[in-house]
Amino acid sequence: MSAAIELDGVSARYGAATVLHDVTIAVPLHRITAVTGHNGSGKSTLLGVLAGVHPPASGSLRRSHSGRAAFVVQRSDAADALPITVRQTVAMGRWAHRGPWRPLTRDDRSIVDRCMDRLGVADLAARRLGTLSGGQRQRVLLAQGLAQQSDLLILDEPSTGLDAAAKDAITAVLAEERARGTTIVHATHDPADAAEADHHLALAHGRIAPAPVPGGSR
Ligand SMILES: Nc1ncnc2c1ncn2[C@@H]1O[C@H](COP(=O)(O)OP(=O)(O)OP(=O)(O)O)[C@@H](O)[C@H]1O
């Protein structure tokens, strides 16, 4: 199976603190990879490295994608405070194609509508982002990630804190994206998500750990 991204002996730091150590992995192309690990094990940092926003301190990184990754981070309070609507937030996903503040084309608008539909937030389109619940905001940010139509989708705990219906919607969206040939990497605390993924990377204290046996004790 060919790799979308390969890391070889990668470490990553915040200032003097090394939080990823000697990570050698291959992320399979067109597949779903789940990243698991306890709080602070380095999942978000690894996703940042894979997305190209956190340069490795050492080691090498090789990617087969030429475009920019769509990277959906965990909910940020700063973004929530922006005085923009749900539709405008999702439309920002088109900036990668259109450039910031350029008028959207008819195609862009239909992509934005479709992404809001897929995440069940179309009825919230005119609401200010800051007035939404945490789970609603999370779905809006995912819709923004989808609107980028990148062939590499990196999601930091997309289902954490969501109700069962929203979780199911996200599972369905990921399966649809995979079927389109998108490479997906997502961090999760849910063992069921990890078991369903094509590939599982477990992190412990910033190092790749042996993946737990499905169905085994954890
Ligand atoms: N901006 C930062 N500055 C300094 N240290 C950081 C920063 N972000 C994360 N860290 C540290 O890096 C380590 C890995 O954090 P990371 O956010 O990658 O873990 P995580 O597995 O995603 O955790 P969680 O499950 O809580 O989201 C932790 O020890 C954390 O304290």
TrEMBL record:
InterPro entries cross-referenced by the UniProt entry: AAA+_ATPase (IPR003593), ABC_transporter-like_ATP-bd (IPR003439), ABC_transporter-like_CS (IPR017871), AztA-like (IPR047748), Metal_Ion_Import_ABC (IPR050153), P-loop_NTPase (IPR027417)
SMART domains tied to this protein: AAA
Keyword Cell membrane annotated: no
SUPFAM superfamilies, alphabetized: P-loop containing nucleoside triphosphate hydrolases (SSF52540)
Domain ABC transporter: 5-217
Origin superkingdom: Bacteria
Electron transport keyword on record: no
PROSITE patterns: ABC_TRANSPORTER_1 (PS00211), ABC_TRANSPORTER_2 (PS50893)
GO molecular function, one term: ATP binding
Keyword entries, A-Z: ATP-binding, Nucleotide-binding, Transport
PANTHER family to which the protein is assigned, alphabetical: IRON TRANSPORT SYSTEM ATP-BINDING PROTEIN HI_0361-RELATED, METAL TRANSPORT SYSTEM ATP-BINDING PROTEIN TM_0124-RELATED
Family as reported in the entry's similarity comment: Belongs to the ABC transporter superfamily.
Protein name, as recorded: Zinc/manganese transport system ATP-binding protein
The organism of origin for this protein: Glycomyces artemisiae
Lineage, top ranks: Bacteria, Bacillati, Actinomycetota, Actinomycetes, Glycomycetales
